[in-house]
Amino acid sequence: MKDFFRHNGVWLLVIALLLSILIGAFFMVTGFVLTPWALRAMGTTEEALPGAILYLRVYFLGMVPNVIYNMGTGVLRAIGDFRRPLYFLMAASLCNIVLDLLLVVVFHMGVAGVAIATICSQLLSAVLVVISLMRSEMTPYQLFPKRLRIYAMPMRSILMIGVPTALQSVMYNASNIVIQASINSFGTDAVAAWTAYGKMDIIFWMTITAMAQSITTFAGQNYGAGEYERLKKGVRVSVAMTAGFTILLSTAFFLLAQPLLAIFSPDPDVLEVGVEMVRFLAPCYITYILIELLTGAIRGAGKSVAPMLISVFGVCGLRLLWIATIFQLPQFHTIQTIYWSCWLGRPATPSPGRSPPWPSCSTTASAGGSTRPRRRKSAAPIFCGGRRHCRAVGAGAHTRPRSICGRISGPMWASAPTLFRRRNDT
């Protein structure tokens, strides 16, 4: 068991779970305390403020299971298991629907009932994913809750990738808050139209996010295996598939804007603003796909700083600058100017023609005349547990990709002596 637990996937998972609990607790307390201030800063109307504060405070109480679920499903997706996350999400969604009807319609709990239903569904999804990881016996991602503790070496590896990704998400949300606050200044019709458009918009974003997560997993597996040409081909195929779906969805939204929005609000004034939103922003979807998919591939190759900088300066920075400058001018203080801010930063993405973060598959001749791609020197060590996971054929040589076996040259040690002992890499 010691040798198996020493495998890098297991102790990285333990630390990731502990980090999820700590991060979730931090956001739970912070969100609960700062909710009234944040809503007032966004310009929320006084009639909507009490219900919004109640909902968000109850929602933040469920932040810990929410983070645990996202961590666990991220692990499952990283190993190529996309079915169980889907099943867990379906179960949580069904639970949310049932509890919504029960608490709102039967017990008349209103906003509080909706929020309680949400956190109960999140708790169910977190429990399911934790049980799934605990029962993954004899796998490198089995969860051992009794081993929850912090270890310096894997913590550093997680934070090197996780912190830039988290900052990227924070900047996205910060820019969206500024846009929402700007929309709020145009009254309830604009807010209702923006909310209705968001229900349609989420269809696109759920799809493109799933494609970005898939290409991140695909890129990580092929980058670690040295299959760089396959990686590039996968990126091209994913861009083509997403572009085809985006064109179809944008066309449907443009042509069916009014009947789709009428599902959420039959008010003529809301529909007038909403149709204008949809017909301006839906054709711009095609410009969004490159930054999502290409940054996902870059992140899969272990380069998380570059996607963060692209998002901070190329997306969020331009949006905030546009709102802070152009939108403040009297002649441009219109809702149409905000539409431009939503689209402005998206094309600011690396050109597909630039050099990727993975090397080209140039070949070198071997003694027997055959050729093979040059292997890339690993920038950071990834450890594994035991020779049975490596199946080495010689010093520095492997029969399995580095991303799978994680072997490193030279001795290895860690800050947890009970788990890791110094050993030779032979």
List descriptors.
single chain; 426 residues; mainly alpha; 66% helix; 1% strand; globular; disordered C terminus
What does this structure look like?
The protein has 426 residues and is an all-alpha fold. 66% of the residues lie in helices and 1% in strands. It contains 15 helices and two strands. It has helices at residues 2-5, 8-41, 49-61, 63-78, 83-106, 110-134, 152-184, 188-225, 228-255, 257-262, 268-281, 289-300, 305-324, 335-344, 402-405, and strands at residues 363-365, 371-373. It has a two-stranded antiparallel ribbon. A hairpin with a 5-residue loop joins strand 1 and strand 2. Helix 2 (8-41) packs antiparallel against helix 3 (49-61), helix 2 (8-41) crosses helix 4 (63-78) and helix 3 (49-61) packs parallel to helix 6 (110-134). The longest helix is centred in the middle third of the chain and has 38 residues, at 188-225. The two termini are 21 Å apart.
For the biggest β-sheet, the strand order reads 1-2
Q: Using the CA coordinates, give the radius of gyration.
A: 24 Å
**Number of DSSP E strands:** 2
How large a portion of the residues is in β-strands, by DSSP E? under 5%
Q: How many helical stretches? A: 15
What fraction, in percent, of the residue positions are helical?
55-70%
H/E topology pattern: HHHHHHHHHHHHHHEEH
End-to-end Cα distance, whole Å, is: 21 Å
